[in-house]
């Protein structure tokens, strides 16, 4: 091969490599700017939500005592749990030795509050005052009878571990304003000081099958 021609090919390859890498970097930056109006990592649309503060208060009283009254339970107080409710589902370890399963309605009084008419228990007098600013979801349920699968479902949308947490989904959907800080953080309270007080596990704020940046 002609040395001059070989030198020309070498320059061409070098020039092509530099140009390709430069264009790839430029395209990446332009793409991020277009998606987030100049802010890196944001989605292609302008999100309405600016931030989310999510409080998961594990160990709270039952919703039946807070905001989801069951009037029919009062009429059935003390009667045995019908088979149509359990449908052959196994018992928990706490109730496996029980011979009787009497129905027990809430011991607390409920009233409707605000223009929405939200029903709130007497246990939440301050919450009742802002009832119109709240959204009570009463349709969520799981098939599990234990706390752990229900908690996992609450945080990830699935009863089995391995799915992305709510924080990961929010980061995936809303993006982040920077590359150097995490899009979300999880703060775990110690309560009484006993680290085993709350059934919280790192899988409840993991990225699951999403990329690790989420």
Notes on the protein architecture:
- This protein is mainly alpha-helical.
- It contains 6 helices and 2 strands.
- The protein has helices spanning 3-36, 71-75, 83-86, 125-129, 147-156, 166-174, and strands at residues 110-113, 118-121.
- It has a two-stranded antiparallel sheet.
- Strand 1 (110-113) and strand 2 (118-121) form a beta hairpin.
- The radius of gyration is 27 Å and the shape is extended.
- The two termini are 52 Å apart.
List the helices and strands and how they pair.
Elements: H1 3-36, H2 71-75, H3 83-86, E1 110-113, E2 118-121, H4 125-129, H5 147-156, H6 166-174
Antiparallel strand pairs: 1-2
Question: Which descriptors apply to this entry?
Answer:
about 210 residues; mainly alpha; two-stranded antiparallel sheet; 6 helices; 2 strands; about 5% strand; extended
Structure summary:
By secondary structure, this protein is mostly helical. The protein is built from 6 helices and 2 strands, in the order αααββααα.
User: What sort of overall outline do the alpha carbons produce when their principal axes are compared?
Assistant: extended
Give Rg in angstroms. 27 Å
State the assembly state of the protein chains.
Answer: single chain
What share of the residues does DSSP label as strand, in percent? under 5%
Going by helix content, strand content and strand pairing, the class is: mainly alpha
The largest pleated sheet is described as: 2 strands, antiparallel
Unreliable segments (pLDDT under 50, ≥5 consecutive)?
33-40
| Strand order, largest beta sheet | 1-2
Q: What would the average pLDDT be, to the nearest integer?
A: 78
Written as H for each helix and E for each strand, in order along the chain, the element string is HHHEEHHH
* First and last CA, distance: 52 Å
The percentage helix is 25-40%
Number of E strands: 2
Tally of helical segments: 6
């Amino acid at each position: 091969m002609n040395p001059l021609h070989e030198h020309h090919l070498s320059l061409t390859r070098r020039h092509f490599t530099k140009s390709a890498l430069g264009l790839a970097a430029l395209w990446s930056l332009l793409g991020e700017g277009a998606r987030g109006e100049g802010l890196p990592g944001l989605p292609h649309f302008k999100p309405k939500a600016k931030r989310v503060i999510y409080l998961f208060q594990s160990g709270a009283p039952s919703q039946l005592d807070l905001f989801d009254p069951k009037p029919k339970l009062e009429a059935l107080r003390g009667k045995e749990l019908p088979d149509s409710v359990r449908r052959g589902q196994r018992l928990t370890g706490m109730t496996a030795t029980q011979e009787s399963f009497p129905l027990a309605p809430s011991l607390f009084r409920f009233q409707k509050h605000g223009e929405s008419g939200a029903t709130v228990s007497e246990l939440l007098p301050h919450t009742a005052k802002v009832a119109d600013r709240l959204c009570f979801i009463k349709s969520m349920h799981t098939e599990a009878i234990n706390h752990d699968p229900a908690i996992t479902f609450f945080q990830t949308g699935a009863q089995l571990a391995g799915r992305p947490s709510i924080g990961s989904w929010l980061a995936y959907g809303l993006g982040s304003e920077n590359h150097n800080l995490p899009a979300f953080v999880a703060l775990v309270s110690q309560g009484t000081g006993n680290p085993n007080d709350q059934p919280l596990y790192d899988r409840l704020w993991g990225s699951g099958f999403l990329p690790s940046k989420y």
